[in-house]
Fold:
Amino acid sequence: EVAYFDRPENSSGAICNQLSSNAAAIEDMAGTRLGVICQALSMSTFGVLLGFFYNWQLTITIIIPFVILLIATFIQIRLSSWLKKESDLIYSQASTLATEVINNMRTVKQLSMENEVSRQYSNMISQILKMSWRPDTLCAAVFALYWALSPMTLGLLYWRALILVENNELDMSNIVMISAFAMFALESLNVVGMLANRIGVSFAAAHAFFDLFDRIPTIDNESNKGQELTNFSGETEFNQVKFMYPTRPAVLVLNKLQLSIKSGQRIALV
Structure:
């Protein structure tokens, strides 16, 4: 329906910005990167299963860092997805402003509004910076955790292995094998963690596309329901009509319009 495009978030500039950025985000994760993620998850699962096959007591030692890594990856994906949704709203407003300024460049120049337009655009971009510094800081901490967790887990594995060897519960020949499988699984999961930011952005972009595809219009043009006019003669009458644009509610375009149009008559409104 026409009213959908009257909303500020659905202007031409906002829609073009959303379609281009969301399509690029989905394309960024499709193909090679999606294959890398599937490969990393399967290799990580395979490494843990082989570790349990050789010695479950030593393999279970990596479960704690393994779960920590999964939780950190999940948090980073959710943060990236949330930041993508919130920033897209501001980017849409900024794109709408830029489109209107470019289309009305002469008016902006004649009214000397260059500084005002630049100030509005800068304020919108500043909102994104203020909103994103906390999630970015947390993502940086998670990224540091990815690098620190591997040597810490390796030290924990050797410490646990020495205890099991002293208690004659583990052979020395299996230590290297189990440690290799454990670190193999952890490093494979690290690959997914490194791509968590892009995964979250892709999820948000896909969610936006599905919302657009699944949206049900308020006016169904193909519906036959409703009241049918039996005695329609073609005469139209406007009686005390008031009209204003949704984007400019303070400006009254039509004020108490009184107009009668007979059947077959042509009227031009300038």
Observations:
- The chain is about 70% helix and 5% strand.
- Residues 2-214 form a domain with the ABC transporter transmembrane region fold fold (CATH 1.20.1560.10).
- Residues 25 and 42 are 24 Å apart (CA to CA).
- The chain has a mean pLDDT of 77.
